[in-house]
Write a structure and sequence with these properties.
The chain is of the alpha+beta class and 390 residues long. It is built from 15 helices and 13 strands. The protein folds into three domains: 63 residues, Alpha-Beta Plaits (2-Layer Sandwich); 192 residues, Aspartate Aminotransferase, domain 2 (3-Layer(aba) Sandwich), CATH 3.40.640; 90 residues, no CATH class. α7 crosses α8, α10 crosses α15 and α14 runs antiparallel to α15. The chain has an eight-stranded mixed beta sheet with strand order 5-4-6-7-11-12-3-13, sandwiched between helices. β9 and β10 form a beta hairpin. Bound molecules: flavin-adenine dinucleotide. The site of flavin-adenine dinucleotide (FAD) has 34 residues, from α5, β4, β6 and β11.
Length: 390
């Protein structure tokens, strides 16, 4: 009798849970997420059990999900696992904050203080796998994984273009299930998407998110490269170089058979203008909830802008990383590797947040969409000239 009561109560609970699920998710797909909220993380594509989702460029050149209705089985997973809807808050509210310099050879190759490479080298040393953003053979930015420190150079350096995540979240899961240590690095929305995709914590996963001002359109960068240099002529491209001092507004471009050049915001490089003027940013970045504290990653890395206001001796003009350690796992690896750094100094959180993006709102120019559509239709250089002058 009691058994019958329990099973019917259980059945009733299951039925109502299913009804709630059906009401919320089924018959709807990720296409129900408004364009201005979709962050292009690719979580939906990774989670789709029948591969009905592809990521395609919208009119502004950002990847957005498209659902093949003939393949779709309306399971609702793409919507349920969308990080914009399903946000994980697993990290600690009050992170520990540090200013860090990696050793000189690393800092030279890194955009900030080289914290990423210290973490990556530690994981590779432990025979783990490291995921991050790299250029592919077409000078597009996409996530990939490396298993050997000889490949680290590809992931080093910030690429100021939204990275195509491809099927990285599935690959991360495969490595985790094999028991490999995995470091996944990316923008905060990508870390949020990975966690949502996985649905549970893995002891062998370390997540590292970047302080992120916002991601520029891949279409804008593609057109810039094609029109300005020709992608077949490019030998190397770096969004930031330290050869001209520590700044985030100087590019380093090497064309085949030519001298290296350093286009900069000061010299009115049009890509620098579009990026730093926020014209090329994704709409969803304007009010990104993943940019907040609590963070998405076990560790957050960025530039320690404003560090000299706190302590001049922590700024030597070669790049200082701001590091937020936000979980026990983050703390463990940080303790393990901190002796390999050239300098580690604890600082108050307030010093880190004063001149950097840890809040939600980044104002975008009113003409942003008009600018991006014009780039798509008329080309980058012509549009940039119209908007920014010579
Ligand atoms: C689009 C974008 C906006 C950013 N905005 C800010 C900001 O406002 N303030 C700030 O302090 N820092 C910002 N950063 C982070 C900063 O530029 C450095 O990437 C970061 O400090 C790491 O520097 P590092 O010296 O430790 O390592 P580096 O070797 O310089 O960086 C390598 C790391 O950056 C990751 N990465 C590079 N490009 C991308 C990309 N397109 N998408 C995802 N991951 C990428 C790699 O996967 C790797 O984890 C931004 C980075 C990006 C890509």
């Amino acid at each position: 009798m009691i058994y019958k009561k329990i099973t019917s109560k259980f059945k009733y609970q299951m039925q109502t849970a299913k009804m709630r699920w059906d009401k919320k998710y089924t018959k709807k797909t990720v296409e129900a997420v408004p364009n201005n909220r979709c962050c292009g993380c690719g979580g939906c594509k990774n989670v789709c059990p029948v591969d009905a989702i592809t990521m395609e460029e919208d009119v502004c050149g950002f990847l957005v999900p498209r659902v093949n209705q003939e393949k779709c089985i309306h399971c609702g997973l793409c919507l349920k696992k969308c990080p914009v809807i399903d946000k994980h808050k697993e990290t600690e509210e009050k992170p520990k904050v540090y200013a860090v310099w990696a050793p000189e050879e690393i800092r030279k190759k890194s955009s900030s203080g080289g914290m990423f490479s210290l973490l990556a080298e530690q994981v590779l040393e432990d025979e783990g796998v490291v995921f991050g953003a790299a250029f592919n053979e077409n000078w597009e930015v996409a996530h990939k994984f490396i298993e050997d420190s000889s490949q680290l150079r590809e992931l080093q350096g910030a690429k100021y273009v939204q990275s195509d995540i491809g099927l990285s979240y599935r690959q991360v899961k495969q490595f985790l299930m094999q028991g490999r240590a995995v470091l996944f690095s990316g923008c905060p929305c990508q870390v949020a998407a990975l966690k949502s995709y996985l649905g549970k914590a893995y002891d062998n996963l370390l997540t590292v998110d970047l302080v992120c001002h916002g991601v520029p359109s891949p279409m804008v960068f593609r057109k810039y490269v094609e029109e300005m240099y020709g992608k077949e002529n490019l030998e190397s491209f770096a969004f930031r170089t330290k050869e001209k001092g520590y700044s985030c507004t100087v590019l380093q471009v090497k064309l085949k058979g030519k001298e290296v050049c350093y286009p900069s915001l000061k010299d009115k490089d049009p890509y620098e203008k579009a990026f730093h003027g926020s014209y090329a940013l994704r709409k969803a970045c304007e009010n990104c909830k993943f940019a907040l504290i609590p963070r998405q990653g076990d560790i957050t890395i960025g530039d320690y802008w404003g560090i000299s206001d706190y302590d001049k001796s922590l700024s030597d003009g070669k790049g200082t990383s701001v590091v937020l350690v936000t979980s026990k796992k983050g703390e463990e690896i940080f303790e393990k590797l901190k002796d390999k750094a050239q300098m580690v100094q604890a600082t108050p959180l307030e010093a880190a947040t004063r001149k950097n993006r840890f809040g939600v709102h980044v104002p975008l120019p009113e003409q942003r969409e008009e600018f991006l559509k014009a780039v798509a239709e008329e080309g980058f250089l012509k549009t940039a000239k119209h908007y920014f002058g010579d």
